[in-house]
Amino acid sequence: MEKRSILNSKIFTLSRICALFIVLLAIPGLAFSQEKANSDQNKPYDPKVAIFEHIGDAHSWHISLPLVKPIAIPLPVILYTNKGLEVFSSANLHEGEVYQGKNNYIVVKDKIKIADSAGNADATHKVYDFSITRNVVSMWMGMIFLFIIFGIVSSSYKKRAGKAPKGLQSVIEPVVMFVRDDIAIPNIGVKHVKYMSLLLTLFFFILINNLLGLVPFFPGGFNLTGNIAVTLSLSLIVLIVINFSGNKYYWKHIFAPDIPFWLYIIMVPVELIGIISKPFALMIRLFANITAGHIIVLSLISLIFIFNSLAVSPASVVFVVFMDTIELLVAFLQAYIFTMLTALFIGMAVEEHAHEQHEI
After folding, report:
1. Among 38, 100, 144, 169, which has the highest number of CB atoms less than 10 A from its own CB?
2. pLDDT digit string (tens) for 322-353?
């Protein structure tokens, strides 16, 4: 009886956790719906504009909460033009309106341009935008989470040296062990220790920002890993590490492979393209999967406004919760795939080849 009581208690607790999880997954849809309800009712609803506003970058920090009017916090705008450096608040910028600073500025599709005397964008003058956008804020928040989490875990290891992990330490340690035992060692081998810091940073940075991106109303939680510039930067880091780690066998395989000489004209260009295509695949895979997930979820919510009927809302919410659950899996899966392929490419670059076996 006691065991049955304990089992029933665990099942009840699990069911409450699942119910809370489902409610939390539905909250982004409620926030999106509330933002639409607070917008200009006279304008026809354009799902494309609404969706790309949510997955794109912006010069203001939007916070949308259910049943609360959306808040837009202005961020610093940092521009370098023909008249030098200029810093001002994004609160001065409004779509279609001219702001007078050192130059006249106008916002066109959230891009800041220099305006001519007629108030139109002047393509002859270049604007270098170094502004702190909401994706930058989101990245900073992800970094803060990383510092806090690993600061706590590091402190726990120092205080509990030789003891079993406890609290947050017991959550993070299995993940670190997983990255080491199932990603680094099988793909890199004995040299894995040198690259563990990189692999762990990539894994947790992508994972945390993927999870934050699942909660659009969360302050700073935006489509960071669905931004091509972010995935490009991560891929460039991987490209540099791979090629600086490459040994003589790696470069010999590219420029002097063990094939007939007349095939060099084909294989060498293919191998050189492969140097770029590997990190390029990492960049596109992460960007496309995360962006596609956000577009699908927001498209399902938009069905309510497209049909302009509450009758569609139950089905829409059910599919949104289902897709958000899939996106939760994708958040972990993409962090794993990016880290695993990075380890695989590094392993291919540092692998020592035993040529003696080919002489048998």
Report:
1. 169
2. 887 888 888 899 999 999 999 999 998 888 76
Q: 3-class secondary structure for the chain?
A: CHHHHHHHHHHHHHHHHHHHHHHHHHHHHHHHHHHHHCCCCCCCCCHHHHHHHHHCCCCEEEECCCCCCCEEEECEEEEEECCEEEEEEHHHCCECCEEECCCEEEEECCEEEEECCCCCECCCCCCEECCCCHHHHHHHHHHHHHHHHHHHHHHHHHHCCCCCCCCHHHHHHHHHHHHHHHHHHHHHHHHHHHHHHHHHHHHHHHHHHHHHHCCCCCCCCCCCCCCHHHHHHHHHHHHHHHHHHCCHHHHHHHHCCCCCHHHHHHHHHHHHHHHHHHHHHHHHHHHHHHHHHHHHHHHHHHHHHHHCCHHHHHHHHHHHHHHHHHHHHHHHHHHHHHHHHHHHHHHHHHCCCCHHHHHC
